[in-house]
Amino acid sequence: MAVYTDITDEELAELLAEFDLGAPLSFKGIAEGVENSNFLLETDKGRYFLTVYERRVREDDLPFYLGLMRHLAEHGFPCATPIANRAGELIQRVRGKPAAVVSFLPGLSVRRPSAAHCREAGRGLAWLHEAGAGFAMSKENDLGQESWAPLFAGLRPDAERLKPGMADQIESDLARIARDWPRGLPGGVIHADYFPDNVFFQGQAFAGAIDFYFACTDAYAYDIAIALNAWCFEPDGSFNITSARALVAGYEARRPLSSAERRALPILAHGAAMRFFLTRLHDWHATPAGALVRPKDPMEYERKLAVHRSAPDLVLFGEGA
Amino acid sequence: MAVYTDITDEELAELLAEFDLGAPLSFKGIAEGVENSNFLLETDKGRYFLTVYERRVREDDLPFYLGLMRHLAEHGFPCATPIANRAGELIQRVRGKPAAVVSFLPGLSVRRPSAAHCREAGRGLAWLHEAGAGFAMSKENDLGQESWAPLFAGLRPDAERLKPGMADQIESDLARIARDWPRGLPGGVIHADYFPDNVFFQGQAFAGAIDFYFACTDAYAYDIAIALNAWCFEPDGSFNITSARALVAGYEARRPLSSAERRALPILAHGAAMRFFLTRLHDWHATPAGALVRPKDPMEYERKLAVHRSAPDLVLFGEGA
Hints:
Chains A, B: Keywords: Amino-acid biosynthesis, ATP-binding, Kinase, Nucleotide-binding, Threonine biosynthesis, Transferase. The structure is a homodimer of 321-residue chains. Helices cover 43% and strands 16% of the residues of chain A. The first copy, chain A, has 321 residues and is an alpha+beta fold. Chain A folds into two domains: 95 residues, Phosphorylase Kinase, domain 1 (2-Layer Sandwich), CATH 3.30.200; 204 residues, Aminoglycoside phosphotransferase (APH), C-terminal lobe (Aminoglycoside 3'-phosphotransferase, Chain: A, domain 2), CATH 3.90.1200.10. In chain A, a hairpin with a 2-residue loop joins strand 2 and strand 3. In chain A, 44% of the residues are buried.
């Protein structure tokens, strides 16, 4: 949670001069989003978010992300829509950094999702997949299965520092995942970071998704696997089968899974745990002490890896459900 | 800029259950306020701020601060008003910390105030003094003139570390300030931290003040002196007499100064520079490396001290203006 880029009233006025949004009424830095600086902007015309993209988002990828948000919103999916300036541009520039003005999306994220929240989250994810189906652009998953072994090669000493013997265990997981990774599953645009803090509710109902800056083209079922890991583990590390059933049932209420997709869920979930374990492991040791953003504990995902390693059938709860 | 206290959707629901504000529609941590954690809360009924008080605000002082905000708002001054819960209490409790729900105050602060902004800021300060005049409570200024010499006694080595020879210079300033400090000036509730980031504008017009957590009972002209230091120095360290004239003229448009108040401005401004120099000096060395909030540079106020020391007449621009 951080605001890395400081924006003065003069810089804001300069930016707004390019738009037809009226005069600013309030402007506040928001402690939301780890990768970017976010500001809540209220003008005569309504409420908006200004996002300034920091180093971690590649500027070349912005047309994909912003185009996707626009496409989703135009197709009825509840997400923030980028607002074009008078010249028709979605990407602005603030303090030399790329930036975008997007519409405000109301809603609250939940910290400890109930099974009912998981059902709604699943429904929202299927909705996102459907709404994104006609999107013309595509983007490779830079953090997809093929990237994991090369990424881990540089992190072996970090893994051993966390827990002696871990490196060999991860290598063994990587080999199994590479061997069993499914090919040819139905796919398209996926969110790829569909965690509870990126999903909004109004009361108990799904109200939208935010933070599309990991979105890419990959298997839809992989997005479900990411969500199962993110939504259905208890704080004590156990997998909540009731929540997982609810998440998949909510998804299937909009988009039923093929039997191939369903069969693939265990290995996809194992792989999804690997993906977040590896990037957290990387950030854990790469983040300088005293940085504004505290890195997330890789051990949380190491425990999820262990669950999928030892009990892959857990995720197959759905058979006959 | 920081959010120290993390609040879950469940904790928010628990808090809101004590109020008649309806269901939450959105809730965001705000990068505003250095001393507290602030959240922007939207409900069915409107928009509010939730402030969670961190260690630096003494809980015993909250009835004064919140009572003052309520009094000011009831007397037409534009500031956030604390909202009582159903039991009539203004002070809530979140994660064991005191907290308050206040109304949302729109407006933007300016980074580099023009003379026109200074005039409006002066008008707003006089308005605040007038509106606070009938407030029944009082609170000693814990950071008033009598506190400075004892505070500096513990900071001599820190001053010498910043600039050799500085400690004797500060002692000499303190002696002069103690000798010439005015007594018996008109007084009452002052803001005591009336900096540009605590004052809101709509366009060019004063729109309100925030952050009353240094408010206390002291001389009104001392509040003006604090504001002159905070608003009328250029980035290069020079004192902008045009801005200062505008600030005092704006103030006097609502509340004319007595000749005693006017004559006291130079020594009050010297003292006001001392107060902020000393607390910044204290925080500069007391703040651990890598803390969420970067301490403010005491040298900015050391330079202001030097201006008042060498050219006290600068602040007397107002004679005959």
